[in-house]
Structures are given as structure tokens and as C-alpha cells.
Amino acid sequence: MSEPRNVLVTGGNRGIGLAIARAFAAQGDKVAITHRSGEPPEGLVGVICEVTDSASVDAAFAAAEEALGGPIEILVANAGITKDTLLLRMSDDEFASVVDTNLAGAFRCARRASKGMIRLRRGRMIFISSVVGLYGSPGQTNYAASKSGLVGLARSITRELGGRGITANVVAPGFIDTDMTAELPEDTKKAYLAAIPAGRFATPDEVAAATTFLASPEAGYISGAVIPVDGGLGMGH
Ligand code: NDP
């Protein structure tokens, strides 16, 4: 592996974000994760960040840059939430808070990351979306809208900053074994398992592998892409 790069993973204290952070660290990169409370996972630099707050995002980047000794070259915008309910019952707050966290949160991080990347004349932005962003999902109008928004965000960044050595891509996981899916009702899990060609949920490490690939030198000409890690669930979407 060449020079270690400075990586920031939002929501890297657990689940998919933690697997991604550990995968970058395992290949020798310098990694900071954001968390909202408590202690960071062992062996990783932790910075406090609330992605719905621009000042908190700016402070987290400053702290990560200080700890890692330079600008962030790889941003993984992973922090996300669900607040599922049917359209008819969804409150303004349930819609707005999910979009504010998943989509506007990623925008705030990308905007702050772009400063350092433009100066470096290189950078990788990877947005963790979801198969439901393009496939749709009943009870998830807020979540699916926020996740498809990440595609427009990444593609516009690609057009704006592609000439400066910066790529922006989306990873669209299907069903991954984490706290988020542990909350799903058993019937829903069974129905999804039946619909997934691979016949199983994925591990967080399988999402991490696609993410580290998009940040690798070999992926330097891939930008504005949506890479599914969904066992075939979303094919064609
Ligand atoms: P988890 O619920 O396990 O973790 C979510 C992470 O996001 C936590 O670190 C959480 O921090 C952080 N987070 C949530 N809200 C905020 C906020 N406002 N500011 C800062 N950090 C925040 O989720 P997963 O690991 O399952 O999911 C990670 C990403 O992958 C999400 O974007 C999710 O939508 C996406 N995804 C997940 C799938 C799955 O099957 N699990 C499938 C497809 C996509 P804290 O610990 O403080 O709450």
C-alpha cells in the first residue's frame, strides 16, 4: 500500500460505519470516526459530530484534521437514521429529520471536505445510500427520498469537482445485519429474505469492501456511480 491517507467516517462508532473504519485502518490508512456520545471504538480516533449541525460538522473536521495531521482525503458519509411509518401518518418532523440527517448531513460533510480536497487536488467522497433509494419501500418515503437524494448529490459533485481529482460515488447496501435491521419486524425480515436472490442478509464487512475499493487508486476513474451491495435485490434500479 502507498502513503496512508486521512479518512473520516461519519457514524463510525458502530454498524456499517465501524466496519468501514476498521477496513481502512487495516490497510494502513489514518482513520477518524465521528460519534455523538460515549467513547470511540478502541484503536480509532473519535471526534464528536452531530451531522444536522453545520458548526458541529466544521468542528469535527477541524478536530480530525488536527488528530490525523492533515486534510481529509477520503470522506465516507455514513451516518443515517430511519423513522418509518406510512405516508398518511408521517409527520412533518418524521420526514424532515430523516432528510436533515441522511441527506443534508451528507451535504454538510461533503461541503466541508471539499475545502481540503480542492487544495490537495485529490479526494474521494463515498455516500452510503440504500437499495430503497432507487427501489422504493412502503413506510419509508422519508428514508428513500433522503437516500435517492444522495445520488443527485454525488453526481453533481462529480460534475463540479471531477476536474480537480475528486470522485464522488454512492454505495447502495441492501439488508445488512446491524442495529438498524435488528429493529425490523420478523415478518418484514422474512419477506425481504425471500426477495433477495442471494437468500441472505450481508455483513457490514461486505459494504466496507466496496467502500475501500471506491477509495483505492484502481477506482480513480469511477465517479458518479451507484454500487449496489444488495445480493441482487435492486437489480436494474
Ligand atoms: P446504525 O443504526 O447501526 O448506525 C447509525 C450511525 O449513524 C451511528 O453511528 C449513529 O450514531 C450515526 N448517526 C445517526 N444520526 C446521526 C446524527 N444526527 N449525527 C451524527 N451521527 C448520527 O446503522 P447502520 O450501520 O445499519 O447504517 C449505516 C448507514 O448505512 C446508514 O446511513 C444507513 O441508512 C445505511 N444502510 C443500512 C442498511 C442496513 O441494512 N443496516 C441498508 C442500507 C443502508 P449514534 O451511535 O450516536 O446513534
UniProtKB/TrEMBL annotation:
The keyword Oxidoreductase applies. Keywords: Oxidoreductase. Its EC number is 1.1.1.100. The keyword Oxidoreductase applies. Gene3D superfamilies: NAD(P)-binding Rossmann-like Domain. One of its GO terms (molecular function) is 3-oxoacyl-[acyl-carrier-protein] reductase (NADPH) activity. It comes from the Bacteria. InterPro entries: KR_dom, NAD(P)-bd_dom_sf, SDR, SDR_fam. Residues 5-179 form the Ketoreductase domain. Pfam families: adh_short_C2. It is an enzyme of class 1 (oxidoreductase). Belongs to the short-chain dehydrogenases/reductases (SDR) family. NCBIfam families: PRK12826.1-2. This is 3-oxoacyl-(Acyl-carrier-protein) reductase. It comes from Phycicoccus elongatus Lp2. The gene is fabG.
